[in-house]
Design brief:
9 helices, 6-stranded antiparallel beta sheet, 11-stranded mixed beta sheet, 22 strands, single chain, alpha+beta
């Protein structure tokens, strides 16, 4: 279903409405009798742009707001002890007395952990979230919901700390960190461990980057030489240590803080509408979006999402090129392509659709009523990367 979309400009400290008649669309599951309270069904609007250096953020706002208080984020659940994540073999030895249930392994596995939800709320997991500990840090491999009272879950993950396989404790804690889109795309969309490692090292193709270009800019960048130095200092290919190391970490934080201030100033002007997501552009290419069912859910993820976008922008610098509101609108046009679906009856539906270089993922909670909690759209890396001198 096509709907009218109001596009606004946030600039110069005032809110200026542009007289552009654009469209927004229903992104609920195709072929499903249950409609969602997610993308497109709640009068979404794109506003912005908010720019700093080569990163542009377009907030997505809505006058409606789903009630998502019945769901816990992974960071929140880990911090409160409502979720326990462990290495597989250690969990089985501790709790199962040697009995191996279906789907589990007797020893630690790089790409699988065990998650137990012992809290009172279902837990939302997003691909790319980092958990720290065990024998090496991991990222969640796929969006999903873990219900309350569920059996221990064999959890698909990817390693982001290549080179370490030791640890005093088998359990994991919240890192309050989301890997940047070029790493996240390898887990969420490509599902490729070797490419996840390559992306941590800065060797995999970035999101977007449809053309090769050599650019020079005064904006802070993360060169491959800087990455090599950070990896050597970390001793392992540890995502946290690499991208929080000095001087990389200091540069990332400066970009994050400045864009965060601009975002806060701009969105304070909104009246009767709430920010429920963002679209991110690097240079003149719109390449990523994270959209949520509620403003509260978005703001739970926003600090680590913003930092991840800042890292991405610094790994693919551009000079004098910016994306427009029309580019952001075009990025969210409906697609019809190859469709994959997974579900847990009564809990959630997961759908991935792709056409050419464009991918989207929807995670829809089915209880207590259908609502699309998270919608991701990404532009897969092109044939050549930017060359950073």
């Amino acid at each position: 279903m096509w709907r009218k979309l109001r596009v606004c400009s946030l600039g110069g400290g005032v809110l200026m409405f542009l007289s552009l008649a654009l469209t927004v669309f229903d992104l609920g599951p195709r072929g499903s009798s249950s409609r969602t309270a997610g993308p497109g069904s709640s009068g979404w609007q794109i506003v912005g742009p908010i720019r700093y250096q080569n990163l542009t953020i377009f907030p997505v706002v809505s006058s409606e707001n789903a009630d998502t208080s019945g769901f816990a984020t992974l960071d929140e659940a880990l911090a409160h002890g409502d979720v326990i994540i462990s290495e597989q073999g250690d969990y089985l030895r501790r709790t199962r007395g040697g009995r191996i249930p279906p789907g589990f392994s007797t020893g630690p596995q790089v790409n699988q952990l065990v998650l137990v939800n012992r809290g009172k709320r279902p837990v939302l997991l997003l691909a790319g979230e980092v958990v720290s500990g065990g024998k090496q840090d991991r990222i969640i491999g796929k969006d999903r919901i873990v219900p309350t009272g569920a059996a221990p879950l064999p959890l698909d993950v990817f390693c982001v700390e290549h080179g370490r396989w030791t640890g005093e404790s088998d359990q994991f804690s919240a890192a309050n960190l989301m890997v940047h889109p070029s790493v996240r795309v390898q887990a969420a969309l490509e599902e490729d461990q070797s490419q996840v490692w390559a992306a941590v090292r800065g060797e995999a193709k970035s999101v977007g980057n449809s053309e090769s270009a050599t650019v020079r800019t005064t904006a802070p960048t993360i060169s491959r030489q800087a990455l090599a130095g950070a990896i050597a200092a970390a001793g392992t290919q540890d995502y946290q240590k690499i991208y929080k190391s000095s001087p990389i970490g200091a540069s990332v934080e400066s970009v994050t803080e400045e864009l965060g201030r601009r975002f806060d100033r701009a969105t304070l002007l909104l009246k009767g509408e709430r920010v429920v997501g963002v679209i991110a552009a690097f240079g003149d290419e719109v390449a990523w979006s994270d959209l949520f069912a509620s403003s509260e859910l978005f703001h739970s993820y926003w600090p680590k999402l913003l930092r991840s976008y800042a890292v991405e922008a610094m790994t693919r610098p551009g000079a004098g090129k910016t994306a427009s509101l029309n580019d952001a609108r075009d990025f969210l046009r409906p697609i019809i392509g190859h469709l994959e679906e997974e579900s847990e009856p009564g809990v959630y539906e997961w759908r991935k659709e792709s056409v050419d270089r464009l991918w989207e993922i929807q995670l829809t909670a089915l209880s207590p009523r259908p609502v699309t909690l998270h919608y991701l759209r990404a532009l897969r890396g092109g044939q050549q990367d930017f060359i950073v001198p």
